[in-house]
Amino acid sequence: MAIEGLNSDLTLTIDKTTDIVNNEVFAAVELPLQTKMSPSPSRLRINKSPRQKTIIVAIDKEEKTLMNK
Q1: Is residue 23 a contact partner of residue 15, using CB atoms and an 8 Å limit?
Q2: pTM to 2 decimals?
Q3: Is 16 exposed, middle or buried (0-12, 13-18, 19+ CB in 10 A)?
Q4: Of 1, 15, 26, 31, which sees the most CB atoms within 10 A?
């Protein structure tokens, strides 16, 4: 359900690396998501290193998205 005046899009920010280790989520979604990009003010940052057992999801409010069309 959408609320009038609010954007229903959500952008997930998946970093290639976290500190100095590879992010396994990035490796898993890199190819399937390359062509599916949507501009949005709402962003989540998602990370998982090889040593972590769970995925880390954080709200990313400060960064701005630049989209090439």
Answers
A1: yes
A2: 0.42
A3: exposed
A4: 26
3-state secondary structure of 32: helix
CA 4 vs CA 1, 8, 68: distances in Å: 10, 10, 27
Q: What is the pLDDT of residues 13-48, one digit of tens each?
A: 778 887 788 888 888 877 666 555 555 545 667 778
Residue 48 has a CB neighbour count (10 Å cut-off) of: 21
Closest CA relative to residue 40, chosen from 14, 3, 65, 61: 65
CB 68 within 8 A of CB 35: no
